[in-house]
Write a structure and sequence with these properties.
By secondary structure, the chain is an alpha/beta fold. It folds into three domains: 3-149 and 275-343, FAD/NAD(P)-binding domain, CATH 3.50.50.60; 162-272, 3-Layer(bba) Sandwich (FAD/NAD(P)-binding domain), CATH 3.50.50; 347-462, Enolase-like, domain 1 (2-Layer Sandwich). The protein is built from 14 helices and 22 strands. It has helices at 13-24, 40-45, 47-65, 82-106, 165-168, 185-196, 216-228, 283-286, 322-336, 365-371, 386-391, 419-431, 436-440, 451-462; strands at residues 3-9, 29-33, 110-113, 115-120, 123-127, 133-143, 147-149, 162-163, 177-181, 200-204, 232-234, 238-245, 248-254, 260-265, 267-270, 274-276, 309-311, 350-352, 357-362, 375-381, 397-403, 409-416. Strand 21 (397-403) and strand 22 form a beta hairpin. The model has no long low-confidence stretch (mean pLDDT 97).
């Protein structure tokens, strides 16, 4: 039986990054993946393919709606070839997953294909697709099995017309009317893909606003811009049934007055979040305990109740984000090597890859109010930027929340072009506990979208934004 210093179950961003860092630190490392390709949900049916479709659909929308304004004239009708678009998406996925395999080979990490389950606290049995199995031994084991799409108990997913994000990434036709249950990140991103391609899209959300975990100002602005794009929203609606008859799907919900409302379309995307995936791990054999909502319980070092078994990513508490899992994978590897790493979970940024993009880090205004923290606000509209006008991306703003007494930046919330990239400036500043004045006094290249961050910082410092 082969003995490893560490075995990792799951090859998503958390798992494969943990494997690479363990190998860099001199550990004999094995990674176990039940599917034929590495990369987990993110690379195969999540982050990467959804961004590929978002970019393709964005190009199409620009060609149809904006090229003429730029002086670009295309003779003949502009058409969508969905099959080709999906094929390009798959090509991006294939290239990316092969890149992970290259990194495993480069770092001499042994890859096992099959379902990994605990035999005991130091042995993992790998059941392969051909029915054979083998067992490996490991001094330490990291659980990185991620999450799966959640549903509602009364919804029967047929994966044809009543679908999850996985099926939405490979549809064979553009829906006539796509009903999206859930106004969170996944529902809005995929809803926007098909809205751009010509579908009618209705988002049905239980809460009174979309992206409800983010700052309320972002929710309001994103819904305003998506309404301009002709998406429809039904907020404060509690879905109570989803039924399919042939090619028609009917969703019934109660609005905030308790009145029944009916929505009819040809596809329903169920996007009500994700849940920790622990099926088949046989955690009982290792003695690993779960907490509420089926997640694996861990301490501050991400150890389970069994000290040599760790868990990271979507399978534990916290935001279900690929970059959060990566940081946790690195942290566990370094802890096992005797180092003293840390993660500031308050500074893990969140992003919605709609257009305009939405990004945030730190505390929301609602959280500061609830905590009784005295703060000041600096906000700057994207439309006041020369770069925004030049590119015709004028929707959105940057909002900076700073401590009223110390001026330390407590939260940054932005919506607009390239905010997914701009948020990193805020993360960097907050990691070094910068004040709003620190950001305001930094030189920002002109003309750029990043100037909105400087201007918002100026507004927060002494209400002295220059260009508004």
């Amino acid at each position: 039986m082969t003995q490893y210093d560490v075995a990792i179950i799951g090859s998503g961003p958390g798992g494969y990054v943990a494997a690479i860092r363990c190998a860099q630190l001199g550990m004999k490392t094995a990674i176990i993946e039940k599917y034929a390709t590495l990369g987990g949900t993110c690379l195969n049916v999540g982050c990467i393919p959804s961004k590929a479709l978002l970019d393709s659909s964005h190009h199409y929308e620009d060609a149809v709606k904006h090229f003429q304004e730029h002086g670009i004239e295309i003779p003949g009708a502009i058409k969508v070839n969905l099959e080709k678009m999906i094929a390009r998406k798959q090509g991006v996925v294939d290239m990316t997953t092969k890149g992970i395999q290259f990194l495993m080979d480069k770092n001499k990490i042994e890859v096992f294909e099959g379902l990994g389950s605990f035999k005991d606290a130091t042995h993992v049995t790998i059941k392969k697709n051909d029915g054979k199995s083998e067992t490996i031994a490991a001094k330490n084991i990291i659980i990185a099995t991620g999450s799966k799409p959640s549903t509602l108990p009364f919804i029967e997913l047929d994966k044809e017309r009543i679908i999850t994000s996985t099926e939405a990434l490979k549809l064979k036709e553009i829906p006539k009317h796509l009903i999206v249950i859930g106004g969170g990140v996944i529902g809005l991103e995929l809803g926007q893909v098909y809205k751009r391609l010509g579908a009618e899209v209705t988002v049905v959300e239980y809460m009174d606003r979309i992206i409800p975990t983010m700052d309320a100002a972002l929710s309001k602005e994103l819904m305003k811009t998506m309404k301009k794009q002709k998406a429809k929203f039904a907020l404060s609606h509690k879905v109570k049934s989803v039924e399919r008859k042939g090619k028609e799907v009917t969703v019934k919900a109660d609005n905030k007055k308790g009145e029944e409302v009916t929505f009819t379309g040809d596809y329903v995307l169920v996007a009500v979040g994700r849940s920790a995936y622990t099926e088949g791990l046989n955690l009982e054999a290792a003695g690993v305990k779960l907490e509420e909502r089926g997640r694996i319980a861990v301490n501050e070092h991400l150890q389970t109740n069994i000290s040599n078994i760790y868990a990271i990513g979507d399978v534990i508490k916290g935001a279900m984000l690929a970059h959060k899992a990566e940081e946790e994978g690195t942290l566990v590897a370094e802890i096992m090597a005797g180092q003293k790493p840390h993660i500031d979970y308050n500074l893990i940024p969140g992003v919605v890859y709609t257009w305009p993009e939405v990004a945030a880090v730190g505390k929301t205004e609602e959280e500061l109010k609830e905590a009784g923290v005295e703060y000041k606000v600096g906000q700057f509209p994207m439309r006041a930027l020369g770069r925004a006008r030049a590119s015709m991306d004028i929707d959105g703003f940057v909002k900076i929340l700073a401590d009223k007494k110390t001026d330390e930046v407590l939260g940054v919330h932005m919506i607009g072009a390239r905010c997914a990239d701009l948020i990193t400036e805020a993360v960097t500043a907050m990691e070094f506990r910068a004040s709003a004045e620190d950001i305001a006094r930094m030189s920002h290249a002109h003309p750029t979208y990043a100037e909105a961050v400087k201007e918002a910082a100026l507004a927060a410092t002494a209400d002295r934004a220059l260009h508004v």
